[in-house]
Amino acid sequence: MRVTELRQRLQALGAQPLHLQRVLREWTHALPPDAHKRKNDDFLPLTLRDALPALRAELAGLATLREQHPGEDGSSRLLVGLHDGQAAEAVLLPRDGVCVSTQIGCAVGCAFCMTGTGGLVRQLGSAEIVAQVVLARTLRPVKKVVFMGMGEPAHNLDNVLEAIELLGTVGQIGHKNLVFSTVGDERAFEALPQGRVKPALALSLHTTKAALREQLLPRAPRIAPEELVERADAYGRLSGYPVQLQWTLLKGVNDGDDELDGIVRLLAGRRMVLNMIPYNSVPGLPFERPSWEAAADIARRLHRRGVLTKLRHSAGQDVDGGCGQLRARALDGVSV
Ligand code: SF4
């Protein structure tokens, strides 16, 4: 279901803007149906009031909790059941964040990613994307939403932007706390500046070498790393939020001195943050995780050369490796 469709259905039931606001607020904030005093329901049109119980049940069925795997770092990996039997992954992050999926599977096919190995299965509707946040809000407060789970948000742009708009308005998530993540796509660079809600941007760069990037991200748009950084930085200046560059650190692949020189060259004078995340091994894939000490040394060296670098653990890595593994195991019928 799309949010636009939900709005249209509510309007067809007689909802005026104030009524729409009320129903969408109740949903996006995961408020129990009795959160509003009964007498306040009286101001809703009768047809809408009559239809609300079934509609609430339908919305609650958009994303249901199938499995929850708490990690030692305060995060918790969720396997989210969808209405058609498919499953998406979401992660409750420390400090009131949630990472949500935007697609089932992914067509980018990153060589180091479990989700990418199976290709795209289907798009998530904007209401299914919002529903993951609603589900998270039934478990803990949510003040930040990152679109970094399964899928490439730029490949499901209309639905992701619709979800962002709702979460950034009625859902009351601060715009800089909505983080649109992309491998870099012309359509996203064009659409993001037009939005009423302008999210923060995370660009998955992973290497400064165009040829290596084509190997690692085989079906990402062929845009040179220099141009990607420039396009992302232009949006960062417009939105006012520094762009985050994502770098999955692969031992012996993108952790050499040549890459460090490339990073310094590309980021010189820019207000960007480099997030380095040591790779979590995925069974069957040929990449290795560098030691934490080696990764920390790289981060220190970049810092000394003027690049704001943050070394991060992947959330919940003690529970499972990277995104896509909970779903893969569920499909195999293996319990984790
Ligand atoms: Fe898709 Fe992200 Fe996995 Fe790449 S890392 S295949 S963009 S889900």
TrEMBL record:
SUPFAM superfamilies tied to this protein: Radical SAM enzymes (SSF102114)
Primary location class: cytoplasm
Membrane spanning residue stretches: none
Keyword Transferase: yes
Molecular function GO labels: 4 iron, 4 sulfur cluster binding; metal ion binding; RNA methyltransferase activity
Required cofactor(s): [4Fe-4S] cluster
Keyword terms: 4Fe-4S, Cytoplasm, Disulfide bond, Iron, Iron-sulfur, Metal-binding, Methyltransferase, S-adenosyl-L-methionine, Transferase
Name of the protein described by the UniProt record: RNA methyltransferase
